[in-house]
Amino acid sequence: MSKVAYFALIVAAVLGVSAGAVGQTVPAGEGDAVAPEKTAVAGVTQAAPVSLGLPYVVPPHVPGAKVRTPEGLAPLLAEQLARSLPLEQVAVPRAVHRQIDARAAPATDILLLPLDQGELVGDEHVVVPTGYRAGVMAIMRTDTDIRSWEDLRGRTVCLTEGGGLVGQMQARHGAIEKVFRAPADALLDLRIGGCDAAVHDSTMLEAVLAFPEWKKFSARLPVQREKDLAFILPKDEPALIEAVQSEVRQWRQTDLLARLTRQSAQDIAFEVYLDQEAPDCH
Asked: Among 28-42, 78-92, 108-122, 196-210, which stretch is predicted with the lowest mean pLDDT?
């Protein structure tokens, strides 16, 4: 089965139409490989997974390890998309020279990356914004003497390995970086005095700070470098583009991003509570 025909079947599964109806949009000669008696679901389950490129792929949970919520919405949106498309997540390096360069990344069918308005994706790609926007934000204790990003020089900052900031705080501000697996670990270290500031996804941090137990850690620096999380797809895959666009439309209609953000913040705050407070309860 050709890739175009395969993605036509995926769209049929997502949109709930027959494989034959979707096949009518496939260029001449491509749709012949789709057997008319096959259902869309059967075609999807039998096909190879769609590769989704992400800046960071969350490692699988190890039995007995602490449950940890990842940073940002990219991993959570990948999980949502996997409910409709058979996905294989692939870690890809960030684009160089502010342009998506297919030669610099493993071959993928889709990319899910934070983009700003100045970044180029090339004429051969289509961008589908998810609607999630976040920047870089630092929080500290309210009695901190850190008042600007420049004040981070020589100070210890907590980061996560999946936040896309490792190396940047040292390079930009001369900070000493402590890298953790997940936001809860980094924020816990901030609370117990292991670092002077925690630097993370601004949308996630704003949601965490809404909880009263974070009032003493609500000092913050201005948000920097806001970007939009977006899917990037090849223009020559119209069926795949339609499948992703349909998913994103549904997410927006159901306010999914806001709900995932609130739930993620609640889970992170609870994970911090369990590690800091629960051991003292007898």
From this structure: 28-42
Going by C-alpha positions, the residue among 178, 229, 175 that lies closest to residue 202 is 229
pLDDT, one tens digit per residue, over 75-97 is 999 999 999 889 899 888 764 33
On the question of pLDDT at 168 being above 60, the answer is yes
CA 116 to chain centre: 15
Within a domain: residue 270?
no
The CATH number of whichever domain residue 199 belongs to comes to 3.40.190.10
Dihedral over Cα of 22, 28, 29, 30: its sign:
negative
Rounded mean pLDDT of 251-262?
A: 95
Torsion of CA 17, 10, 85, 33, to 10 degrees: 150
Give the tokens for residue 190: 């901030």
Domain interval for residue 206: 134-226
Count of the separate structural domains present in the chain: 2
Angstrom distances, CA of residue 238 to CA of 1, 242, 249, 252: 16, 6, 16, 21
The confidence band for 119, taking pLDDT boundaries of 50, 70 and 90, is low
In a domain, 37, yes or no: yes
Beta bridge partners of 99: 96, 120
Domain-embedded: residue 188:
yes
44 confidence band (pLDDT: 50, 70, 90): very low
Q: Which residue has the tokens 């901030």?
A: 190
What is the CA angle 120-121-124, rounded to 5?
A: 135
Q: Is residue 233 part of a domain?
A: no
